[in-house]
Amino acid sequence: MNKGWNGAMDDGTNRLGWMLDDALRMPETRYAILLSADGLLMAHSERISRDEAERQAAGMAGLQSLARSTAEFCGDAATTWRQTVNEFDDGYVFLVAAGPGAYLAVSATQHVDMETVSFRLQELVQRLGKELTTPPRPGAGSPA
């Protein structure tokens, strides 16, 4: 497993939350969480509490697992899962692959531009991948 994906919230700082908040500057978006494949919260946007984000992360991991198990229905059981979109009366939940063993989930209202959200999520996945695989600089974040 890529060590860069581990520990994004282990110290309770939510150090990648700002990237999720940036993604939510799109109209009609609500919340964003970054989670591990086993349902552990890695980061969350400011608009959602940590407790709620942890609960949603566990559910999203199960949702992704269910979606992945239907790959054969798409033609090949070995095909790679990339994204799941769930529609509700009040909006959508987008769940996308965000790297080895990590997923990004975003909630939006029923008025959101789905194409724009999908595009922005792919951009965010690229940014998160670079951030999480770059080792921290020595002394970064320590008091001067």
UniProtKB/TrEMBL annotation:
Transmembrane segments: none
Domain of life: Bacteria
Family matches, as SMART domains: Robl_LC7
SUPFAM superfamilies reported in the protein's UniProt record: Roadblock/LC7 domain
Family annotation (Pfam families): Robl_LC7
Segment forming the signal sequence: none
Domain spans labelled Roadblock/LAMTOR2: 17-108
Any coiled-coil regions, as ranges: none
InterPro entries the UniProt entry points to: Mycobact_SerProt_Inhib_Rv3364c, Roadblock/LAMTOR2_dom
Protein's UniProt name: Roadblock/LC7 domain-containing protein
